[in-house]
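Archive record:
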Amino acid sequence: QERVVESGGALVQPGGSLRLSCAASGVVFRINDMSWYRQAPGNQREWVATITMEGKTTYAASVKGRFTISRDNAKNTGYLQMNSLEPEDTAVYYCNADLVVGVPPWLSEQSSWGQGTQVTVSS
């Protein structure tokens, strides 16, 4: 079954950096848009960043200039580089990918969410 799995979450001090990964597995022909979201305790899940298949990126105002989203299409993997981390960045980070699955010509699209990875920013 096709799915995405996040990794890279950890405890880090304020001002530190982390890189999250989101890897797709299964019979994945292509990934269209890939996005990162986060959810802090007691808050709703919020959008963080998106990268298109062509590499166009967009960011939430709260992370622009500190976070960088990227992807490796050959590996069906996306990344979120997080710099200058603040305690307010503490959350579970989720990857969402628009997968094109199957083998041509039997292709279909599905939106896949990962299980999340915990990022804690604290001294």
Remarks:
- The chain has a mean pLDDT of 96.
- Residues 24 and 76 are 6 Å apart (CA to CA).
- The chain is about 0% helix and 60% strand.
- The radius of gyration is 15 Å.
